Amino acid sequence: MNTLTENLYIYRNMLFPQSIEKRVLIHLLFWVFFIVNHLLFFIPDFADRIKEKQALWAYILYYGRFIPIFYLTRIIYRTLGTIFTGLTLFISLLFGVLAVTHLTTIIFYQYCHVYIGFQNLPGNFSTYGMHYLTPFSARARADWFVLIYDLLEMQFLVLPLGLKIIKYAVGRKMEEISQQKDKVQSELDYLRAQLTPHFIFNMLNAVQAEVGYVNKKASRYLGQAADLIRFTLYEARQELILLKKELRFIQQFIDLVSLRTSRRSEILFEMRGEVLQKHRIPTLLLLSLIENAFKHSVHATNEISFVNISSVVSEDWLDFRVANSKPQLSVPSGSKKQHGIGLENIRRTLALHFPGMHALDISETKDKFSVIVKIPL
Question: Rounded to 5 degrees, what are φ and ψ at 162?
Fold first, then answer.
């Protein structure tokens, strides 16, 4: 997906220049290439026909007439597109382009006849020119072959119209990717806006509870809290974060919480597997699980509680598990709703980043709540 997006941005810079000057320049370069390419294609077989400058100029005009045909075709398509659709649009467009091609060809041969003279040009100009310049009322039935010739001539529009179609497809794809990216970013910003302030608020409450003790413990507490808050304010702005940083942040968070809950809670954090520099995850994804576990176990009761955390990295996959005790006391009003919101945010984050490539398993018993997340790194 990233490679496709990068390639599309490269094509966009070529096909959708920002300034009018660049757009005009690209169009001019294309039509010069178009004319020269066709001249070089036919010169080896018809070199004797363009020995004179007049003949060369006539051939340049012959291929150059597709420039107005192309731009008139675009106008016709835009006009008919507001009236017809589907097969009707295609048929009406075909007749419209055929009429434009025929009239443009008549103008071309009229110019050759008046300003250059058919006698000064190769014989094919005279042959075809007389057919096109003959009035319709005077045409013999066989002379209507010029319409078939017009249809054959429309093959020269394949290249410019094909590029136009490609440009249109790239533009649509870029717009789709841009809309999808904006939507994902909005979703993620919304999720972070819910998670980060709540986390900072909890940390400030913890610091406030300990700041009354003027000792080394309080100093250490404040220092770690400052580090955590700094992380949420700056690192959390990134869409993805190194797994190493997220795990280190979790360890700091656990150390900070343990300072005030170690007497009544058992907290285990196990990490296995090699974490590589390339391993990245959505920012605050794992911390959301940890913060959720502490909020509904350690911080929800003054009784004995536990939180068990396991992080296993294997073959570029992360298996992250969190299990926490459930308070025996009744749950305060509103806590269940908040619990659901936290898990729903996690579900949405996983769906946005790993559609169809993740696993989220939530289980609950009378005494224990467990969450298992498996994601690619």
Answer: -65, -45
Distances 242 to 235, 278, 348 between C-alpha atoms, Å: 10, 7, 20
Token readout for 253 is 């968070």
User: Residue 273 — left, alpha, or beta (φ > 0 → left; ψ -120 to 50 → alpha)?
Assistant: left
Task: Return the closest-CA partner of residue 290 out of 274, 309, 264, 268.
Answer: 309
pTM exceeds cut of 0.85: no
Q: Which residues of 82-109 are buried (b: 16+ CB within 10 A; e: fewer)?
A: eeeeeeeeeebbeebbeebbbebbeebb
Each residue's pLDDT tens digit, 26-85: 899 999 999 998 888 766 656 666 667 888 899 899 999 999 999 999 899 989 988 888
Residue 93 half-sphere exposure toward CB, CA atoms < 13 A:
21
Task: Please tell me the class of the 182-376 domain.
Answer: alpha beta
Please state, as a whole number, how many other Cβ atoms lie within 10 Å of the Cβ of residue 249: 22
For residue range 103-153, list pLDDT tens digits in order: 999 999 999 999 999 888 888 888 888 888 887 665 566 566 788 888 888
What's phi and psi for 322, nearest 5 deg? -135, 125
Domain with CATH 3.30.565.10 in the chain: 182-376
